[in-house]
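hey so i finally got around to running the thing on that chain from the lab meeting. sorry it took forever, my laptop kept dying and i had to restart like 3 times. anyway pasting the input first so we r on the same page abt which one it is
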Amino acid sequence: MDDAARRVLLEVVRRLTLSGHEVYLADPESIMSDPDPGDGGRVTVVDTVDQAVRPPRGGPAREAVGGGAGNHPTRRR
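ok and heres what got predicted. didnt touch it at all, straight out
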C-alpha cells in the first residue's frame, strides 16, 4: 500500500468515525502498521473479517458491527 492509498483509507476511517460508525480494518498481513486516522478517528484492526462481525439479536446470521467513536487505534486478535 503506498502513502496516497494509506492517507485516503485513513481519511475515510476518520470521517466514518466522526459520523458515529465503529470502523474495523481486517489486516491479516499487518500492512497497515499503527493506523492513525487523526483527530476524532478510531479504527480497530483485526486479523479476519469474522472478528469484526457479531450475530444479530435473535438470530444465528452474522452482520457488520456499527456505531461508536473514539480516537485511538487498537488491534484485536
